[in-house]
Amino acid sequence: MGDVVTIRDVARLAQVSVATVSRALNGQQNVARGVRERVLDAARELKYVPHHAARSLSSRKTRTIGVVLPDLHGEFFSELMRGIDVVAREHDLHLLVSSYHGAPDEQGVALRAMRGRVDGLLVMSPFLDSDALANEIGEAQPAVLINSGLSGVGLGTLRIDNYGGARAMVDHLVAQGFQRIAFVSGPRDNFEADERLRGYTEALAERLPDAKPIVLQGAFDECSGHAAGHELLAMDPRPDAVFAANDMTALGVLFALHQAGLRVPDDIAVAGFDDIPLARYVHPSLTTIAVDIAELGGRALRMLLAGREQPATETQATTSLIAPHLVARESSKRRGPAQRRDSS
Q: Where's the HTH lacI-type domain (predicted)?
């Protein structure tokens, strides 16, 4: 049987009308149980696959969700997409994914290209201003923003408590006895990076009032972390701990320190943010602020689906904050101040 099985074939085998087949397969309630079972049995026997494109012409639903991200490279985005995909499959949805590589103009192009092709949008937008983003998405398009600092644009928002997480890391490093704590930042004009930097500087001022912030520029990647590691090596006095704005940056720092022959954490402690899967398998294992990245993606899609059928005025003002938590591993273990004095 090389011919494509159609809904008419299912109707013929089940001995019902095409309309009844459509109602049964779409889960509508006005179909008797026996009739529904007969239709489903016929569909299974014929290996019938519903044609979503044709269905969308009549229902105006594409069964597709658009996902627009700053990048697709690295473990963070891989985990995020894994979480989104799990929920999409649970709801028989397809994903249309695009990356704009940190360029606001390219994000606008991606958003415009998705108009009419998706039933809703998940957008990670750390750069665009409120008016530009609202205009690109459009008032009629359900959307949820992920890790965005935008507010007052009538869109649902799901974000990590980056500020609180950074404060928790500084508290941990100080409690471990570190006094000269450097910070490798994320990209400029990035909401998440700015919040993590703010958490670092404010917590440092409170916990170590006499300490000056030591901030090195990073870009949320291994390359910038490696470069920052070389900057740290040239400092005199050298910091005794470094907190990187994300784990990929921290891995670059670790590599630079290992190349120079320094021992982590004996010579200098290293910490990150995100808890990507690789963080627990490097040597030494990386202390970090843990975010359930896959759950972040899944929760964002569930949030979008929950509000998709309601009027925008009732759904789009929702803002949810996810609290991360500290995971202390080998890269930041150190004796406290009193113990150091006893051993000197």
A: 5-59
